[in-house]
Protein 1
Amino acid sequence: MTSPGRAARAISYAILIFWTAFTLFPLYWTTITSIKSSQTVNLPVPTFIPWVQFQPTLQPFIDIFGEGQGYGVNGMGNVSLFFRNSFSAAFLSSLIAVILGAMAAYALSRFRYRRWKNNDIAFWFISQRMLPPIALVVPYFILFGRVGLLDRLPVLIAVYAAMNLPLVIWLLRDYFQDLPLEIEEASMVDGSSRFGAFFRIALPLAIPGLVVAFLFAFVFAWNEFLFGLTLTFDHAKTLPVQLAGNVTLRGPRYWDIAAQGLVVMLPPLFIALFLGRYIVRGLTLGALK
Amino acid sequence: MTTAQPAITVPAPSTAGSRRSLDHSAKYIFLLPALLYLLILGVFPLLFSLRLVFGAWNAGQKEITWVGLANIQRLLVDTRFWDSFWKTLAYVALATGLELILGFAVALALQNVTRGKSWMRVAFALPMLLPPITVAFTWKMMFDFNRGPVNYFFGLVGLPPVAWLAGKQAAILSLVLVDLWQWTPFIMLAALAALESLPVELYEAATVDGASRWDILKQITLPLIQPYLVALVLLRAIDAFKAFDVIYVMTGGGPGTSTELLTFYAYVAGFRPFNMGFTATISWAILIIMSIVFLLFLRAFRRIEEP
């Protein structure tokens, strides 16, 4: 690209400074609200700078991990339990999605299917990702309800794995396609079976891709709300569902909401920092490399 | 396959044959688990919900009762549905349109600078991976009428406070703004990646020929990048149609029914009066609309993959 003139560069920096502030300020606001006391939050004029404008406190975090002490009927519930639910659901579903997805992705990148072309199969998978989740909510609710599986973590794990499988296949298909074929072929000439070539050679080489796919799946499962809302009520409830309950149960106790929100936000935030430039590639289904 | 390989370079025909047959079954063994998994948890429930379009089901009921076309007839004359339908179209068009313009503008800005570019890329991408529920609460706090910073900043520059979530139009615009915050980076960073993949030679040639920056943008950059932008906008539109979480937390569909977009209305119609047949019917309407957008996306996507 031609080097931009001075004016163009100045305008560019102005735009970027604005967007940086726009992106980061809401996150900053949630962070400082989570260390405010109820009195500070309810002041008529908002405060922005801890230690200068208000005295920070860890009380909101003590509240939310205090197993609902002090809130009576409308208690916070057991945030630690919901955290464990969210984590198990996200972790195990991503594991299933990556195992099934790696196999299918390997198949699509190594074999040729004649009746349906490889691309058609791949697009069928991705069309599953585009389905509006609401279309699955009702049948899931009725079908799982019939067999008494509502409010059970395994159901959420199974559903999240299905939700993430298409994306995992799509990402890993690209990854396997870029791996060199020679080592696998050499191992098969040496008498290894296709399965041996997959498990001993292709899979270890694909570990970076598997990690990225796993992290994406983890974040989407961790963030998921609609299935959690309709398929769990109590024992299997996840963090986003618990957090959303704050609307209906109590008035806006922003300090507690912010603390809970931060707890829910932190794992995806760290994963986002780790994924860095992979984020765009993952979200655009690898259309842009 | 367990027998030792003979020490010759060309494998014996029998070995090659058995390997081919094993490979032949491997072809299916690798693919089938994922395929079956999605058939059971994706296609089968969808067909089941198609059955519900012609039925009624209430909590505690064992079987679905057949009601024929009643749900569809009701949908066609349901003003709340059509109201929701048009609002959803407006929301999707406004959000994706603004995201396209803003995203492309910021992408061009990012391309113009060198310092701070790599960390800005990561910072701008952050909102996309955050849980929508927490995004919604964050903005609910920002928009708070009395205690929120947005109205405070408005006051600083002499603007009157706005009832962001309580006004009919303001509430929809607030939802659009939250979508902009979370998803403009999608267009922005993808467009930047596409911009960076364009051949440098073209630009050099154009500059030598004395083309202005504006000409270069209009004559070279935009035509080259347009197929990407179309695919990105359609992908974004598909996701915008699914808007639910942010509405649930920020407005609950209100004030009145003014922010009841399609997915939210489908949920409300099914889980509040517990009319699952009607929800299934709305869901199928959404499914059909989105399939059309998806087919458009596929065409755009294939144009990028196989130019």
Note: The first strand of chain B starts at residue 55 and ends at 56.
Protein 2
Amino acid sequence: MKAIAWKDHLFFAGVAVGFLLAVALGREAARCSKPAKFERFYWSISPESLYYPTYATMERLALARWSPGKILVIVGGNSILNGAGQPVEELWSHRLQALLGPRYAVINLSFRGALPTEGAALVAEALQRRGIPLIFIANTAPDTCGLPVGSIYGYLYWEAAAAGKLQPYAPRDRTIAKWLAQNYPATREKQLEIKRAARLNHWLHFQDLWNHVGYHHVFTVWNSVARWTPWAPRNKVPDREPPLPPVARRFSHNNAGEMRLARASTERLLTLDDTGQWIKNPVVWDALDTTIEATIVPDLRPCTLMIFSIDCPYYRNQLTADELSRDETAYRVAEAVWTRYGIRALVAGFGYTGEDYVDRRHLAPSGGAKLAELIAAQILTMQPSPPP
Amino acid sequence: MNDFMRRFLAHRAFQRPFFRFLLGLVVGGLLHYFLYRIFLPAEPFIYVAF
């Protein structure tokens, strides 16, 4: 009987050692594992295919690109800056790197559908805190800033917070606490679960280890996006964009739906008064003011460039004169709002042709090259923070 | 320890201490993987291009 008890203990000792071994491997993965030859977060290494890059991975990617004496240019924002529609060889951020030269190191950490305050912004904030000279670029819609929590990429905020990477900023803490308190109980519980997961991962490194396994060896979770190669290690799934159709066939499908979206983007932002002047909708613009103030740390603002992209001319040409005027006014108002907080802002897309777009919003390689030229010209006149 | 667990641990193949420890190692690793899976937000991804 005694022998059996001794053997039982061996089993449980094995469980403890196995778990601790996995934690140690995860810790090692968190220290050095990152996607190889990284250019951007394409579909197979981003949450749309259940691969959730950790905050630590993003920070490591940025640090791997940087070396002392260089200015780090961190690109955040959504699919437009992610280069959706551009083959990776013709990615706009490559062009930006070429234009800026070796004194700058450009890293594209944008995600499809991400807000300017998510993911890359947190990396920029943390690296700035470590004294790395940088410039942060992001893009957004004219009325959108957004909290760093609540969306699909919100886990990155909780991970950065759990690791103690973020700059202390009480207005952001208060705003997130208020948002959580005022939200539906189900949403609140979900957020608290993501927060708990981030804290646990900080100590136990399960996300780090199994992301590493999924990237290098075998991906263990089936999902519909990767249904053709569900178990393939994600480093074997290439970053490919579908071939670009000729301009004549590029925009004609679902014109009514796209025009609805084109109109809706600024419809509720401004109202035309009796004298023909555009009046700001205070609900929208006050919310934008409050969110910028509460989510972007003051130290990051002087070295931030915010881009707004206008729609493809194919759709803009179908807008009425009033709608066009409303669009342009809304973008100018947005520029003024962001500038008021010390953030440089500019509108991209004026003068672009149909050739420069792959759809209503996303840029083709030629449009990406134009965007890179516009942004490079701005960056060369900006002062990185902290100064090199 | 319930009856199933007692019978499991008393199985002939499980009498060798090395295999017991090895099985424990595997279960420990699986527990770590289990944490990854339960916290993986496996919800449909809604893609919104701004």
Note: The radius of gyration of chain A is 23 Å.
